[in-house]
Specification:
Largest sheet: none
Order of helices and strands: HHHHH
Low-confidence stretches: none
Radius of gyration: 17 Å
Helix content: over 70%
Number of helices: 5
Structural class: mainly alpha
């Protein structure tokens, strides 16, 4: 259990670092848009709660990356893929999960919750966010898979009674 928690937190931390380095450093350095995930979190908090106390948006961004998104891969995406397409390589699942995270962030959170245009009107930041979420998912999945963690909704090694 301790190994699983450490691995998941490590996966979330490394993936969040990769996402932020790419979106806020590499992307603008190569002439693409700069991501503002804390700005989106601020908009979301202001819409939902009417205000965004200092630091809360940053904390929301960090907790989402460290915990929630990585749990989504570990508890939902990978077990679902294993039950439907068990021979599919984890990297394909990670890319598809990254796309799902992008839809969640830029359609559900940005548009439906914060009231911004869907997918931010498909401007440059939209595509940087897509690549960033895919990168996040690949890094998180790589750490999880390298450590051999797996979660399944099927019951294994459970004695049956007759």
């Amino acid at each position: 259990m301790k190994h699983t928690v450490f691995t998941l937190l490590s996966a979330g931390a490394l993936a969040t670092i990769a996402f932020d380095v790419y979106g806020q450093g590499v992307s603008p350095a190569i002439g693409m848009a700069q991501l503002a995930p804390v700005g989106l979190a601020t908009s979301t908090l202001q819409t939902v709660f009417g205000s965004s106390p200092a630091g809360l948006a940053y904390l929301l961004h960090m907790i989402t990356g460290l915990v929630f998104y990585v749990l989504g891969y570990y508890l939902v995406a990978r077990p679902l893929q294993r039950s439907v397409l068990p021979r599919l390589h984890w990297s394909v699942t990670a890319v598809l999960y990254g796309i799902a995270l992008w839809v969640f962030a830029l359609y559900i959170m940005a548009h439906l919750v914060a009231g911004l245009p869907p997918f931010l009107n498909f401007t440059g930041i939209t595509y940087v966010a897509l690549y960033g979420h895919i990168l996040y998912a690949i890094v998180a999945a790589w750490v999880i898979e390298a450590q051999g963690l797996s979660f399944s909704f099927t019951r294994r090694n459970v004695p049956t009674t007759r």
